[in-house]
């Protein structure tokens, strides 16, 4: 092992039974809880320079961003604390290496271009308890190794909805049950000379819109650890640990940055995983191929979606964002078998803030797939019934849309009551937005325009 470095340690503590939290218990469960960052701050390797500063350590973790690319290459996405990668006087880490496994002796030397520090934090890295204390590293995928674990999952509902709301998908309720922090301690004790993976769990709560607090004792080296819990069989991360306990004023309470919509939107932009400002069009709309058939919402957000003939005057423009991925057990590890899920949001101008000001409500409108009442609506709250999977014919061909909570149905836009000659009276629309049976192959196909 290189001097002054730590490795990822696997396994879970004997005092916690993960199987009791899973609907489908697995045997010999091993938790890949993160990976170690071993950054050299400000200076070159101290082994080659006796005047260099000591090595600094921190923790990071994989997050499963589907089909992530960076600079044209497939990448794994690593989140960590911003202060692991930049000093208070704005000097960035040098000789940064990532160690991501028990057998990873040399680590991966991180190119400077593969690191992004939250711009607001890079501008003010000396701000204690900053809500912007986060950074990301893009690691090229090693296609020669079969990776069974894609990383921690995220739940876009926890990120997008007000954290203190009391409804379904409430982050406050999720954290009140039990929240985990798992990272690498570097305390030099006889039982922990080289750093060990520490697990701590207790109740937590949102602190404002962008910070989290939790009754968890943390140690040096754990900055950048995932703040997570098990949600619907998924290891779901909701924050990044950044601040240890204040023993004088708030003993046993640590804090972190909330993984909110602002952070995820930036990750989606950097990795090219969001599709923005597109109309949803029926791929084959015979006999209306010339005009096209489109999904349309009226100016009243309470009205169900309709089918519209032609794009002239159509202002229903959508953003497509990843929602998360459901995990299923397989043998001795948790692996992701199900496809990634996505959601539609009414497109908003690029200058609209992702995080509303204190006391303000988000103006986002999410497309809700109501399969029970056979309709499509807009919802100010992001719910699990907004999520769907793409079912494609070919890699870049047209696609079907299947609600994630009802896998035997597909979205369909009909045209039985569309009359081209009615266009003299104004826009031609019908209420033929419905869900039809899904038999494993998409028969109702769409494309973006």
From TrEMBL:
Give the protein's recorded name.
Answer: Serine protease
């Amino acid at each position: 092992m290189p001097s002054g470095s730590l490795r990822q340690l696997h396994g879970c503590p004997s005092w916690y039974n993960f199987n009791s939290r899973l609907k489908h218990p697995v045997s010999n469960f091993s938790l890949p809880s993160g990976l170690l960052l071993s950054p050299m701050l400000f200076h070159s390797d101290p082994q080659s320079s006796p005047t260099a500063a000591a090595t600094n350590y921190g923790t990071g973790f994989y997050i499963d961003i589907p089909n992530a690319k960076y600079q044209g290459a497939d990448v794994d996405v690593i989140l960590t604390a911003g202060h692991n990668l930049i000093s208070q006087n704005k000097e960035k880490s040098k000789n940064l290496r990532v160690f991501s496994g028990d057998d990873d002796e040399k680590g991966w030397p991180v190119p400077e271009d593969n690191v992004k520090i939250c711009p607001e934090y890079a501008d003010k890295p000396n701000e204690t308890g900053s809500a912007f204390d986060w950074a990301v590293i893009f690691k090229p995928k090693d296609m020669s190794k079969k990776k069974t674990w894609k990383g921690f999952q995220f739940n876009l509902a926890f990120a997008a909805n007000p954290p203190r709301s009391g409804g379904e998908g409430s982050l406050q309720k999720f954290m009140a049950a039990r929240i985990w922090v798992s990272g690498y301690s570097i305390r030099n004790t006889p039982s922990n000379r080289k750093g060990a993976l520490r697990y701590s769990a207790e109740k937590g709560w949102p602190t404002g819109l962008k910070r989290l607090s939790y009754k968890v004792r943390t140690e040096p080296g754990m900055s950048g650890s995932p703040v997570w819990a098990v949600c619907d069989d998924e290891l779901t991360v909701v924050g990044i640990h950044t601040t240890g306990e204040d023993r004088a004023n708030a003993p046993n309470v640590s804090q972190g940055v909330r993984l909110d919509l602002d952070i995820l939107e930036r990750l989606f932009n950097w990795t090219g995983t969001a599709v923005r400002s597109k109309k949803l069009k029926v791929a084959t709309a015979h006999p209306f191929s010339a005009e096209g058939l489109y999904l349309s919402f009226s100016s009243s957000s309470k009205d169900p979606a309709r089918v519209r003939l032609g794009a002239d005057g159509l202002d229903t423009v959508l953003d497509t964002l990843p929602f998360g991925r459901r995990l299923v057990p397989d043998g001795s590890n948790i692996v992701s078998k199900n496809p990634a899920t996505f959601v539609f949001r009414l497109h908003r101008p690029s200058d609209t803030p992702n995080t509303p000001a204190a006391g303000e409500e988000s103006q986002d409108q999410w497309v809700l797939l109501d399969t029970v009442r056979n309709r499509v609506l807009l919802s100010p709250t992001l719910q699990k019934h907004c999520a769907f999977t793409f079912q494609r014919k070919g890699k870049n061909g047209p696609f079907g849309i299947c609600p994630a909570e009802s896998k035997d149905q597909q979205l369909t836009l009909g045209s039985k009551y569309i009359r081209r000659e009615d266009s003299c009276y104004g826009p031609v629309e019908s209420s033929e937005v419905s869900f039809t049976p899904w038999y494993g192959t998409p028969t109702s196909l769409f494309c973006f325009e």
